[in-house]
Each structure stands twice: as C-alpha cells, then as structure tokens.
Specification:
By secondary structure, the chain is mainly α. Helices cover 48% and strands 6% of the residues.
Length: 223
C-alpha cells in the first residue's frame, strides 16, 4: 500500500518533494494487485537466501520475522523493481553440515541450540519420541517449513501462533485465490511429517519460480 511505502521512505531519512514522491511511487507501484504476486518479491528474496545458505552447507534453523531485515535499495526502484530487499540474519542457531563428501549427518546436539525454537516457525516435538527423532534427522526441512509459515503470514497479513493456524489459513483463505500447484507446494513444506517436506531447497525454488511465471503470464502481470 502507498502508506506503507511512504513510511519506509520517511524512516530512511530521504527528503522527497511531493513531485519526487509521486514519481518514485509510480516507479515502484503498477496499480496491479494480486494476493500472491504482490508479496512474491519478498517471498522469493527470503527463499533465495535459504538456497544460498543450503548450497554452502548451512541450515539456519531459526527463520522468523525477527531475523529478516529489509534493505531499501533506491537503484532497484529506479529500474521499476521492488525496492525492498530481504536479508536473512542471525545464524546463532544454524548448523554447518558441509556439502558433497564433506556433508555430515544431522545429529541431536544441545551445542547448536536444537532445543530452542520459536513457534510456529519450527516444528514442535518431543525428542524422546519417534516423531521427535525423525524431526532431528530431517532438520534440512525446517528452513522451508519456516519460509512457508512466513509466506502464509505475508499473504494473510497476520501473525499466526501455531502451525495449525497457519495450515487453516492456507486452506481457508489462500487456496481459494492462489494456483493449486503453488498451494500444494506450501502444503508439502508445512507437512506435519518431515519425510513429506521438500528437502532440496534449490529444486523447490525452481518450481516456485516456474509456477509464478506461469501465473504472471496468465494474469498479464507487468514486473
């Protein structure tokens, strides 16, 4: 919304005349509205950060709103692109597993804060149970689960307290407006069974991009 964009500019300390403000607003807003595509630049930016981290053999394991910073990039606005660039920060709970032959198995350890979690961005489990042990083995799915939670919250413009609420909002509010294939990917990322969640972040991103481009083409969306 215009008010939100104006607030971000005001907080940046940039002093724009009304004429400059109007020109800038025209550059970064097209008047188009779509539940998925309006939030897509932010959604994709966070996903890109996860793909990069995972490619380096790092699982963040604490993806949440407080660990997402927004950089205001005026050069992007001048090119007609979304000026807000998300930055993933605070890798204090991350785990380095390496890549290729150097990749290590994911074992439970208190030294990497595995037991510290923020709901609903991490699965809730008892590590003494079979489900808990399965979650520990599939920590490679936690970042995408958190990304899916953030995505649902962005789309409904509301903070949600539990994974059950997130899944409910996905079915009741998002599934009726967003392509079934995209919703199916979100469902998989939010699955209660870690073995059903996507494990390859790069392939997941490619699928999201492909389906989004398909939606843009159908809606004749102008970037």
């Amino acid at each position: 919304p215009e008010e939100g964009v104006r607030l971000m500019f005001d907080r940046s300390g940039v002093d724009l005349s009304e004429e400059e403000w109007k020109e800038t607003l025209d550059d970064i807003t097209t008047g188009q509205t779509d539940l998925w595509l309006d939030e897509y630049p932010l959604i994709l930016g966070i996903l890109d950060a996860l793909v990069h981290a995972h490619s380096r053999g790092i699982y963040h394991r604490d993806v949440k709103p407080g660990n997402i910073l927004l950089e205001l990039d005026f050069s992007r606005a001048e090119k007609g692109l979304d000026p807000f660039v998300p930055k993933l920060c605070d890798f204090g709970a991350s785990k380095i597993i390496g890549t290729g032959k150097n990749k290590k198995s994911i074992a439970p350890t208190r030294h990497t804060l595995v037991n510290i979690r923020t709901e609903p961005y991490r699965p809730n489990y008892d590590e003494s149970t079979e489900k808990g042990k399965k979650e520990i083995r599939h920590q490679d799915t936690w970042d995408l689960l958190a990304w899916a939670v953030l995505t649902v919250e962005f789309l409904v413009n509301q903070h949600l307290d539990t994974l059950e609420e997130v899944r409910s909002h996905l079915e009741e509010k998002i599934a009726v407006e967003v392509d079934r294939e995209i919703v199916d990917l979100l469902r998989k990322a939010l699955s209660d069974d870690p073995e059903e969640r996507p494990q390859d972040t790069k392939k997941f991103r490619s699928r999201i991009v492909k389906l989004t481009e398909k939606r843009k083409k159908r809606l004749k969306w102008k970037d």
